[in-house]
């Protein structure tokens, strides 16, 4: 069996690397912040749920050859957030089989890192990596329509509205980006 793990990526200001067991506390801090979870999980996550999230990311790399990275400032080593590609098999998308095999892009940053251009920097790095390393023709993302900063970022990096979903948990915009 071939083991595939997240490659380390570098941008001008940031380093992206795979998840490790020692990252649990940083991830708990991220996912317990109500600003972070407002448009994602809807509520802060318990430590055991964050642990489960951390464990699934290496599995994506092993099964699909893509996954999520943790993001750190290069100059300080400070934890910035998570970004990556996944196949979450979301119930809200079960009536959209055209999206099932496509990687879903996602990003979430610590509140202190908002407004500094970090999100665009890491999302562009991940999408560039995706275009060079994956054969899928497109990538999609799901964004709460009230999350205007993420909708603006998605448009800047090439995502376009594909469809609008009304789910039991609220509305979502599904945006699609073609391979470059």
UniProtKB/TrEMBL annotation:
InterPro entries in UniProt: Acyl_CoA_acyltransferase, GNAT_dom, N-acetyltransferase
Top-level taxon of the source organism: Bacteria
Keyword annotations of the record: Acyltransferase, Transferase
Pfam families linked to this entry: Acetyltransf_3
EC number assigned by the record: 2.3.-.-
MF terms in GO: acyltransferase activity
Top enzyme class: transferase
Residue ranges occupied by any N-acetyltransferase domain in the UniProt entry: 14-180
Entry protein name: GNAT family N-acetyltransferase
Organism: Deinococcus oregonensis
């Amino acid at each position: 069996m071939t083991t595939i793990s997240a490659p380390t990526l570098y941008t001008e200001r940031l380093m992206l690397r795979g998840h490790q067991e020692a990252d649990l506390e940083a991830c708990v801090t991220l996912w317990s912040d109500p600003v972070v979870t407002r448009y994602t999980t809807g509520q802060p996550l318990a430590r055991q749920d964050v642990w489960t999230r951390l464990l699934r990311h290496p599995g994506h790399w092993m099964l699909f050859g893509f996954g999520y990275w943790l993001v750190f400032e290069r100059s300080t080593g400070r934890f910035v957030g998570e970004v990556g590609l996944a196949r979450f098999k979301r119930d809200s998308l079960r009536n959209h089989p055209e999206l099932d095999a496509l990687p879903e892009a996602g990003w979430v940053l610590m509140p202190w890192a908002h407004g500094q251009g970090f999100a665009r920097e890491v999302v562009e790095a991940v999408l560039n990596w995706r275009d060079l390393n994956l054969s899928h023709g497109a990538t999609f993302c799901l964004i709460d329509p009230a999350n205007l900063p993420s909708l603006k970022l998605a448009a800047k990096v090439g995502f376009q509205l594909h469809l609008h979903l009304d789910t039991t948990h609220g509305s979502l915009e599904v945006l699609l980006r073609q391979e470059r």
